[in-house]
Amino acid sequence: MLRTPASRAVLRSLSSASPRSQRPILHRVSPQVQWSSQLCTLSATRPQAVALAASKTVANTFARQLVTSRVNHADIKAEKELGKQKLEPHPELVSSTSSIHPISGEVGVKEPEKEPDMLAGMKGDLKTISETFNLDNVPQQAYVIGLAGVIPYLATSLATVACAYEIHNAGTGSSLLLSEHSAELLLHILEPLQVGYGAVIISFLGAIHWGLEWAGYGGTKGYPRYAIGVIAPALAWPTILLPVEYALIAQFLTFNFLYYADTRVARMGWTPPWYGTYRFVLTFFVGAAIVVSLIGRGQIADRIGKLPSPADRINEYRENAAAEELANAAAAETAKENEE
C-alpha cells in the first residue's frame, strides 16, 4: 500500500485509539541487545558508523584471541624449559615434620620455637656415654680377655675398701667378718698385689706396640713405636719401690699417659681403628679401681701401720751394714788394746 499523508494520519489515529492494556510490556534488555539495537538504529541512520563499530568489535575479539593464544604458547614453552632442568636436592628444607605442614605454611620458613627440653642435656650425656662405650667393632676375644684382665684390679680394690671398713668400724663393734688386726694384715697383703699387677699390665701395654711393629701393622715405624714399648715398663716398675699411695698415683698417671699415646697412634693408623675406644674402656675401669683404693685407704691412713717398702728395706739394710761395720771396728780396736 502506498503511504500518503492521509494514510499516515489514519494510522496515527488507530495507534492512539488502542487500549493501554494492549501495549507491549517493555523489558530491560541486555547490553548485547542494546548494542544490536543501536547497531540497527545506526544502520538505519549512519551505515558508515555501523561498519566502523563492527570492525572495532571484530578487531577486539581477534586481539583477545591473539593474546590468549600467546599466553598459552608462553606457558607451554616455559613448562618445557622447566622440564629440561635438573632437580636439585635441598635437604635443609626437609625435616621430620616437613610433610605435615599446614596448607598456609611456607616451605623453608622456620617453625615457632618449642619449649626447651629440661632433660635435653642429660639425654645428650647418656647418648655420649653409650656411644663411647660402644665396642661393636672390637673383636669379641679381645673384649672378653681385656675385661677379664681388669678383674684382679677390681677385686683388690673392693677388698681394700672392705678392709678399710672393718678397720674403721672395729672400735664401734659393727665389724662384719674380720677383726681389726686381721683386716690390717689382709690390707698389707693386698698392697703389693695391686701395685705389682699394675706394673705388669703397664709393661704389657708397651709390649703390644712391639708386637704391632713386628707384625708390620700400619707399616714399619721403627724406633718411635719401639720407644713406646720401652717407656711403659720404664715408668711402671719403679713404682714398686714407692709407698703404696704414691705407687697407685704414679700408676694412675702412667695409665692415662699410655691411653693418650695409644689414641694418637690409633689416629695415625699404627693400630686397629677400634684400639682407641678399647683402651678407653679398660683405662676407665682401672682408673676407677685405683681411685676407689686410694679413697678407702685415705679413711684409715692414721690407724694402720705401714709395711716397709723395698726402699725402706734397702735403707734398713744399709743402716744395719753401717752399724755392723762400726761394731766390728769397735771390737777390733778393743781387741788391739787388750793385746797391748
UniProtKB/TrEMBL annotation:
Domain of life (superkingdom): Eukaryota
KW Transmembrane (keyword) present: yes
InterPro entries: DUF3429 (IPR021836)
Residues annotated as transmembrane: 195-214, 226-249, 277-296
Key word Membrane present: yes
Low complexity bias (residue ranges): 1-24
Compositionally skewed regions (Basic and acidic residues) per UniProt: 80-91
Entries under PANTHER family matching the protein: TRANSMEMBRANE PROTEIN 69 (PTHR15887:SF1)
Record protein name field: Uncharacterized protein
Species this protein is from: Aulographum hederae CBS 113979
